[in-house]
Amino acid sequence: MPLIIDGEQIKNAPTLDSFVKSFPQFKDSSDQLLKQNVQEVNPHGLLYVGQREVAGTYPGDDVISILGSEDATTCHLMVLRHTGSGAAALAHFDGSSIAEGLETMISIVADLTEDMSSGRLEAHLVGGFLDVSKNSHEVSDKVLEALCKSPYELNLVTACITHYNTVYHNSIPFPVIYGVAFDVRNGQLYRATFVDKGPDMAIRSARLYTGGKENLKIYDPQTHKLKIGPFHYGRLPNVDIFLSLPGSQIRQFLSTSPEQEPESFVESVRATLIQLRDFPRPLQTVFKGGKSRIYSKDKSTGKWIMQPS
Question: Which domain does 37 fall in, by range?
Answer without folding.
Answer: 3-299
